[in-house]
Amino acid sequence: MTIQITDYSDVRERARALGLIEPAGLVFLPRNFDEADTIEEFVYEGSLPDVRLLLREAGIETTKLEPSGTSSKLVKENAFEWILPTLFIPGAIALYRSNPDLAKSIINKTWDHSKIVFVAVTGRTKIKWSILIEDERAKKTKKISYEGPAEELEKVRDFLEKTLEEIALVEEKEKEK
Amino acid sequence: MTWASFDEFQQEITQTIDGCQKVLFISRGKEFQEEVIIQLESLLNKIQTAKTQAIENKAEQWANLLLQHECITQAYLEFARMWVEIKNDEMDKAWDSLINAQMAMRCAILVRDDHQLHRFNERLHLIESVMFPSPMFVSAGYTTEKIECSICGQEYGECGHIKGRVYLGQICACIVRKCTFNEVSLVADPADKHCRTLSFGERGRMRNFMTWRPVDDDTGEENVPPTTPQVEV
Hints:
The complex is a heterodimer of chains A (about 180) and B (about 230).
Chain A: E1 2-8, H1 11-17, E2 27-29, E3 44-45, H2 48-57, E4 74-77, E5 82-83, E6 86-89, H3 92-98, H4 102-117, E7 127-135, E8 140-148, H5 154-176
Chain B: H1 6-21, H2 30-56, H3 60-87, H4 91-111, H5 115-131, E1 137-149, E2 166-167, E3 170-171, E4 174-187, E5 199-202, E6 205-208
Antiparallel strand pairs in B: 1-4, 2-3, 5-6
Helix pairs in contact in B: 1-2, 1-3, 2-3, 3-4, 4-5
């Protein structure tokens, strides 16, 4: 199991360069977001519709990068692993303050569904997922990348919550100054 | 209703499934296993008829229960077929039957999680690892442009049904209507274990992966010796 946290490029700037509307809410990014020349080239992980529906069930709405009515191309690779689409959380601190259970809701719902995805699998299970957290104030984006078994997905929730809390704390300290 | 009462339904299921279990071992007579196949096929037919009626009547609980028993019966049927095929020296077919049994059992557990079903599922996987050589699996990579929901026929993701969940006697699945193939990869954990290498080259000749017998270059069929084969070293 590996969880890595790295710096990521400016998603808003990249969206502008592609002529897209800047993300206003939670949004899933295509697999080739960094390399695509046009939005017609966008391809998403095959699990995109599933995860979008799951979050909707948890009361979390996601927006689309493309204009409404555009259907998304999905990549299907039939190895037995569950690759989730990259989730971008813009203005993460504002979202976190308005809904402190956001990370918990996202991860718990996904974890719950992984039991269906991997039902009756006797060997190892494997999930790959990246979540991008935008720190709007510092103009930075952090990327949390997880690769590991479904049973340990809760560690992503802890990591996500910790990262959000740290960013919020820095912001508060700066305000105090 | 195919059965006069629920008790009658339960009795037939229990009798047939329990009855078949005692012959589902390699040492048990092939004639008994063939007999069990006929019984399970008949039961499967009755369950499917009843399930169709339940779906028409929108009797969700009954339809889901029948779906689970349909999957369990299918799993035992494929398992029985596997033993007969092994005895008939049809190893490619035997592999396919075992994988069908695993897939049916997975669907049964999807409908309702049950400890006994998990135990049978583990047995099926154990048989795979001890009775067959481990093949190289292949996986197709493709980009979909149009996928439909198997429950309602609408574009998947827009209708609200979620793949793998059970709705009125059916498990939701995605039907790919338009796609572009990208690649084929060798993978260790495929989504479908039917997708595997059938034969391989060794010292300039092709061999069947399951039996290790040479295969005909043109037809791909095994050259089955008329008598006991001599193992080449």
